[in-house]
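Justification of resources, computational component.

The compute hours requested in this renewal are based largely on the per-chain cost of generating structure records like the one below. Each record pairs the submitted sequence with a full structure-token output. That output is archived, and it is also reused by downstream analysis tasks.
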Amino acid sequence: MINLLGNNLDGDTWEKICDYCYRQRYQEYHFVKIPSNYEGDGGIEGYTGNGVVYQCYCPEREYSDNELYEKLRDKLTRDIKKLIKNEKELKAVGVKYIKEWHFVIPEYRDKRILIHAEKQRKEILAEKNKKKLDYISNDFSIYIKVIEDFSVEICRYVNITDGIKFSFPLMEKKVINKDEYPSEQLENIERKLKAISGESSDQKRLEDLINIYAGFYLNWLELRTSISDKNPELFEKILKIQEAYKTDIEMKCKTNFDSTINAKLFNEIMDDFGKALNKEFNDLVDPKSISDLKHDTIATWLAECPLEFY
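The structure output for this chain reads:
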């Protein structure tokens, strides 16, 4: 599961995040949260004045694709039926009409949940017509909403909330196949690490280091796509700090005419950039992810030339 909210995502946390997202997005439509403390929430977490109601759900643990589908299917089925069963309760809390029912989940991996949602939509409309329910819209729809649909609101939520941080997905350790690796980038990494380590460096250790940084570079190519898709605001922050440091780093390398201090300069650059990342993202991103971002960025600079050693 690619999860930019880390492993601390439970039902209560997810509900708070969803409430915040809907309050932010639908405030102009007079969003109303329905507390469940007294006789439950009537089958919805909240509603808006323009006909949107929502129900959130967070799986208890990591499930297989089929298990996740079954959990989502069963939860959706139970809760959507409450729109019919709880007519009096819904009207009593101020729901005038329902045009959209949102099922808000971290993710789904199987198109069957979309097929099931459409089946349930048709059943709700059939019940509406049979019982002449005036609060269900004639063009009633069910929508499956996921983390990516609220990237802006979630980024704001993490900014103002203690105890929750973004966690980048763990990437599998790369086994570098030099025949398949981008040749120019791999050559850059090899050349620069040789210049950093010096002529007398142990060949086996150097090869290991080259493979490690080549792996970091490939990780970033995957990770940046994931972050930009799921959280554009966070991705923009990352790009800004990378760009800000790239020019400084390039100048430090170009003004170094003493190859004997390459390793010292490389470590200083890595330490300084790590401190900058911690200062910028300490409240947003967990420490392991910040460390990964540092190494992935350094590897990218080695591969794509701003970080140059002679």
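Residues 44 and 55 are 5 Å apart (CA to CA). Residues 183-304 form one domain.
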